[in-house]
Amino acid sequence: MKIAKTQLALAALISSLVLVGCDLRVSNLTSETVPENPSGNYDIRVMIEPSSTKVLADSIEPYIIIDGQGHPMQQSAMDPNVWEYEYRLPADRTQARYYFQIDYQIEKNQVATRRQEITDVQEFRLTDRYALTLDVERAPAGSRVGVVGRGFNDGDRIIVGDEPAETLVHSSNSLEFYVPSLPHGRDYPVQLVDSEGSMNVGTLRIDAGRIRVEPERISFTTGDRTTLVFRVPTEAPPGGLYVDVTTDVPESIIMPEVIIPGGSQTVNISVEGGRPGTGSLFIQKQGYEEVRIPVTVSAR
């Protein structure tokens, strides 16, 4: 194999997506930060797709140039467009630079011509701090979601979309966060942030939560009192969960704000009958289904 003479010391801008030439589309599938592992072996993967019908797909031969040596890459058994190389990082190093050289042929006027493409220099570095995954892919607002990883500390916080989430760090390998009240039915990026920066954890779909209210209908007289029980499916986050309650008969219903205390799933609210009237209570919280409670207040 003829190795390209591009010098690793003259590294070009490193990116996860590398576009080269007009015949091939090349995507580096290797993250710039890689979790450290005890074996010291790391998989470097690249996707190579012909972007021209002139390319003879069977002629594609990718090589990884790393530590000044060229190594042929192996075609993935899962995807013929993905190529892999298992690299053993020397024990005294925490990063590596490399680039891809791709030999291939194009056919023009029934004549095969050899070509070669060379990518920009890429880099990966080891990290002893990473977030592997969320323990679920979807959850309703207010529920607790776990994150497994390494190197967590008390200053870590989770951001869902653009919304900070209440975060509980249990250990250096485990934390949880409360799904914030965001519009449901959407996917949100989840990031782990601290004073040093941020890293992607995954994507979470927020489903509609439901606040249960008992009783489901109120009928009493002016001056009487009754109790409404508000219940959520999971513990409220530290600081409590505020629930917006409105009514179309404000002179008929006298009640305080509804806040489910942190760590609790329920709260009891005393409601007093005011002027006679018929209407509804509307229980609303972003990320939750709206609940309607019919209300009738009769005269004494």
What's the layout of helices and strands?
Blueprint: E1 17-20, E2 24-28, E3 33-35, E4 41-50, E5 61-66, E6 69-72, E7 74-75, E8 82-88, E9 95-108, E10 111-118, E11 122-127, E12 130-134, E13 138-140, E14 144-150, E15 157-160, E16 163-165, E17 167-171, E18 174-178, E19 186-194, E20 197-207, E21 212-214, E22 218-221, E23 225-231, E24 241-247, E25 253-254, E26 258-260, E27 266-273, E28 277-284, E29 291-298
Give a verbal description of the structure.
The termini are far apart. It is built from no helices and 29 strands. Strand 28 and strand 29 form a beta hairpin. The chain has 3 domains: 111 residues, Sandwich (Immunoglobulin-like), CATH 2.60.40; 78 residues, Immunoglobulins (Immunoglobulin-like), CATH 2.60.40; 87 residues, Immunoglobulins (Immunoglobulin-like), CATH 2.60.40. Strands 3, 5, 6, 9, 10 and 11 form a 6-stranded mixed beta sheet that branches. The protein has a 5-stranded antiparallel beta sheet with strand order 1-2-4-8-7, with no helix packed on it. The N terminus is likely disordered. With 300 residues, it is an all-beta fold.
Main sheet makeup: 6 strands, mixed
Question: What sort of overall outline do the alpha carbons produce when their principal axes are compared?
Answer: elongated
Helix count equals: 0
Per the CATH scheme, the topology name of the largest domain is Immunoglobulin-like
User: How far is it from the N-terminal to the C-terminal residue, by CA?
Assistant: 98 Å
Task: Label the CATH architecture of the largest domain.
Answer: Sandwich
- Poorly predicted residue ranges: 1-16
Q: Look at the helices and sheets and give the structural class.
A: mainly beta
**How many structural domains does the protein architecture include?**
3
Q: Provide the CATH superfamily of the largest domain.
A: Immunoglobulins
CATH class of the largest domain: Mainly Beta
pLDDT averaged over residues: 87
Beta strand %? over 45%
Number of DSSP-assigned strands: 29
